[in-house]
Amino acid sequence: MLCLVYLVVALCSGLFFYYILPQQYYAIFPGISLFFGISGLLLNWRLSRVRMTDPDRLFNVFMVGRMWKFVATLAFLFLYVIFDKENKVVFGISLMLNYILYSALEIYILYLYHKRIHRHANKNKK
Predict the structure, then answer these.
(1) 29 CB-near residues (< 8 Å, 6+ apart)
(2) What tens digit of pLDDT does each residue of 47-92 get?
(3) From the CB of residue 25, how many other CB atoms can be counted at a distance below 10 Å?
């Protein structure tokens, strides 16, 4: 299910940039969606494992994962700028907008999980 969510977000992001902001869309753009899709799936895979073994550490693992993703995004940005100096501003804007979009999605997924935990905890107390 989560793979489908990431695919839909990637397609919506691509369509948004292709039709609404065509000056921001270029050949490397699918690589941005691929980068965020793979890193998001890795983060959620890790969170799923922690949720099963030690749910109390879930939020710590999430924050470490977010930090890793931020550092990886900056590394991706710097590597791109080294190799393509003429599109660096467009790439940076596209990358940061996608970073914000995928971050909001991951925070919402964590919120839903947190909400589900509290709902089950309240049912068990009654």
Answers:
(1) 14, 17, 94
(2) 888 877 887 888 888 889 889 989 999 998 999 889 888 888 888 8
(3) 18
Q: With 90 as the cut, is the pLDDT of residue 22 above it?
A: no
Report the sign of the C-alpha dihedral through residues 52, 107, 17, 27, in that order: negative
Q: 22, exposed or middle or buried, with CB in 10 Å at 0-12, 13-18, 19+?
A: exposed
Cβ-Cβ contacts under 8 Å for 13 (sequence gap 6 or more)? 33, 98, 101
CB 99, CB 73: distance < 8 Å: yes
Cα angle: 58, vertex 61, 62; to 5 degrees: 85
pTM over 0.85: no
Please give the Cα distance from 34 to 29 (Å, whole number): 9
**Which of 55, 60, 70 has the alpha carbon at shortest distance from 102?**
70
DSSP letter for each residue of 7-28: HHHHHHHHHIIIII-GGG--TT
